[in-house]
Amino acid sequence: MDNQPNQAIDFSSVLASAVHDMKNSLCMLIQSIDTLSVNQQDPEQAKELASIHYEASRLNTNLLQMLSLYRVEKDQLPLFVEEHHIYDLVEELVEKNRFYAQSKAIDIDVCVDEDLEWFVDANLVGNLLNDVFVNALRYTKDKIRFDAKIIDERLHISISDNGNGYPQHMLNSNELPMQELDLGNNRTGLGLFFARIIASAHTNKSRSGEIKLANNGQLGGSVFTLILP
Hints:
The protein is an alpha+beta fold and 229 residues long. It has helices at 11-38, 43-73, 86-96, 98-103, 122-139, 168-173, 190-201; strands spanning 82-85, 107-111, 117-120, 143-151, 154-161, 203-204, 207-208, 210-214, 223-228. Strand 4 and strand 5 (154-161) form a beta hairpin. The strands form three sheets. Strands 2-4-5-9-8 form a five-stranded mixed beta sheet.
């Protein structure tokens, strides 16, 4: 019997396709959890559902990041920059994670002018901020605050919490070139790398977006700031 010729397999494309399918399945799972939670009367079961919802959302965010990074590597990352109300973008994130926040008795304060508009890719920026928000939900004590304002003709969106703040290695990583980031380092790796790519993809008049990490914010804990030109 003749040997079959070897066929080259583009594993990265196969992985990207698998990630896309897994992301769709997770979205269906999250929707099912939302439906179950509406009619859940038992406090303990409601708390367990909230935890499952949180972990599924985190996994979905990670898959979105992997898919976006694959597209960056292939120079195929679509960027659809349009004018959006920033308040609506933030409120959507809060609503998406309200179930978990309520189960943990976390108070969320949105200090964003409802008339504030800016040119952003709402999908990519929404995914970026959602990842930061989800981390804040995990590490805060009981408070999270969103702020957005224009400074020096750039949009600053901040997420603050009253947790213990960023560890020093994360603050150090904020100053490193992207090629030197340690992608295997828990909170420092993929999320931070993704955030910086999405921020820098937003450009205007030779200015690029950036992110900043800090501690001792208005709530006493960590502060993540996305700055877009």
